[in-house]
Every structure is written in structure tokens, then in C-alpha cells.
Amino acid sequence: MSRPSLSAPRRSIDHHRPSMDSGFIAGDIDLAVQSGWWKQSNQVPPVLQGRKDIYFECDESTTTNQGEQTMITRETFILFQDYSQTILTVRYDPYDPSTVELEQRHEGPPKTMRQDQMEEAYDTFGRKISAAAIAKKDQVVGDGSAASFVLEMIRPLEDALWPISTRSYGALVYSNMANASTQQHDAIRPGDIITIRNAKFQGKHGPMHAKYSAEVGKPDHVGVVAEWDGTKKKVRAWEQGRDGKKVRQESYKLDDLRSGEVKIWRVVSRSWVGWQKKALA
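C-alpha cells predicted for SH3 domain-containing protein C23A1.17:
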């Protein structure tokens, strides 16, 4: 299967070494040339191997110089959870690996989306995600985990940017840090993605105002927004993997968040981070 071509024109790239106060995650890493990681397709340097807070893709090409020297060129694009990225370029002769050359460069996160761009992303992806989630009610999706359900809602969408583990799912719509700090960039819509980390909800619910306390997302939980009630600050979400494996609807009253964080994301196009469309497998 051919690799996705990711080396299309990108945003301007700062080729200088980033300063320690660059304000984003991507920065120079130990390339560990001697470890030989670069001989393998779809691999990253040892310092990044096993990391659950990155997402990466590779683009590889092979050229032959007048039938004599063969050169492999591989670019690895590594996205961090703030959507800054590191681009690694490897060039080497597979018959003489000692010729290897490695380079790294870095880009900051993309600009915050304008409201019209947020609405366009919703029309392109959010509506489809919402419809797909509704269709999975009472089913077990993937391995039954919360993250598997949401990934399977995104996977079929051509040109959708995949999540960075369970940390980031696109453009930030809403953020709530234990109700000490909240921000909102657009209306919360069905088909947006809700992530909950190390959260404790405490309050009253039901007609009898019974007290309740619930811990969610230790460490991570994720679902698809089904409905948003702005007056009650209540999110209904399609989810699985918390109370049983089947997809069901759960509600979260955001005013009852006592600790931890709740974020809501809008799935966006790959072009937001300067990546080309990827052919679906």
C-alpha cells in the first residue's frame, strides 16, 4: 500500500533551533543515530517510542542515481498534543547505512480557527460523527473502550485529522478546569468530542434533588456530544467503556465539576496542520 503523501506545501517553517521559551511542545530531540531506529519504516527515535501523547505519520521515497546509488528519503511528521509538530528527515543508502543524514525542524501550533472555519468543520465532520454515533446505540464498538468508540467514528472520514491519543481531538471548542477557569470558542454541537480527565462531579440531580458524586476519566474518558443544554450547562454524550461496553448516552452537568478537566473538541481537516489528504485504507 502506498504511503500517504504528506510533503505538500506546508506553512512556513522556522529552521532555527527553537528557544526554550518557544511556548509550544515541539523542540529538538535526541536523534540517537547509533540506535538505528531510522532503518525501520514508520518508526520514531527511542526518546519518543511508546509515548501516548503524540501522533505521527511517515512519507518515504526511494531514488536511484543513474542505476548506481540508491537513496532512501523518509520524512516523519510528529504531532504533539498542542498541535505543534516536529518534522524529521532521514536520508541514507540502504547498502551503506553509514551515509545516513538526519535533520529535525519544528513548527508551532496552527492559528486558532475563526468561527466560520469552526462551523465549516462541523458541517464537514461533526454532522457525520453525530449520525454515526447514534447508529451505534447499544452496540459494542472496537475493543469496547471509550477511545476505540470515538476513533471508529472518525476513522471513516476522509481528510479528518486523527486524534492524538486521548489528549487532543482537533480544534478546542470549550475548556473547563475544575470550574476555576473556563473558555469557549464556539457553540457546543452534536458530533463534537468530549474528553474528561481525572474529574470529580458533585451536586444534586433528579426531581428529588438527590446528592450525587461521580469520578470520571481516571485518567482519561472520551465520548461524542449528543446534546448541549446551555441553560443547565449539561452535556449529553454517546460513550462506551465506563458503565459497560455497549454504546449508551450519559449526561454531565459541567457546573458540578469539582476537580479535573473537561474539554470539548471539533474534529478538523488535516490541512489545519498543513497535511495533505490521506487516502483511506
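Confidence is low (pLDDT under 50) at residues 1-19.
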